[in-house]
Amino acid sequence: xxxxxxxxxxxxxxxxxxxxxxxxxxxxxxxxxxxxxxxxxxxxxxxxxxxxxxxxxxxxxxxxxxxxxxx
Amino acid sequence: xxxxxxxxxxxxxxxxxxxxxxxxxxxxxxxxxxxxxxxxxxxxxxxxxxxxxxxxxxxxxxxxxxxxxxxxxxxxxxxxxxxxxxxxxxxxxxxxxxxxxxxxxxxxxxxxxxxxxxxxxxxxxxxxxxxxxxxxxxxxx
Lengths: 71, 141
Fold this sequence. Notes:
Chain A has 71 residues and is mainly alpha-helical. Chain A contains 5 helices and 2 strands, in the order E-H-H-H-H-H-E. The longest helix of chain A is centred in the C-terminal third of the chain and has 11 residues. Classes of the chains: A mainly alpha (71), B mainly alpha (141).
């Protein structure tokens, strides 16, 4: 289980935004968005803020730290 | 499986070129020669330019991001560790053979022989680097 969890998929779906839309707005590739949604990649703090900002939520609503999870 | 990114496509192309050119060079000929080394480097360059050009032509989005850079660094680290390990092993074997008096290399061919071994280590490190990057794209970071 990853240490950093996120709600990107749910938040994105609620806004009817595609992975490519989000990737373009954040400035990353679609593959990175896919990896984040599958908890296969923990983004940098800057990218995490950009994702949260793009989805219109606070960073803690978008990303959560799980102390029991492993990196 | 998600569609491959530009970086992934170029990595697969690099791996194919490396294997297609290097494997026959190291396993399908008997002796070393400068012409073969030069020919191989020429073949690598030509094939890489051709394939990377083709990939660039058919890929609209050629963007790279922080994850690509992180994976690239992982690949270089794996390649460096492989190279350092092979160098240590090679030097150790050389020392062991010399100490046992079993080192018989023709003086005229010594330079080319060592160059070939050194080049072989570089090739293995390069393939390790590319393979690590490909695997990293499929694994959690």
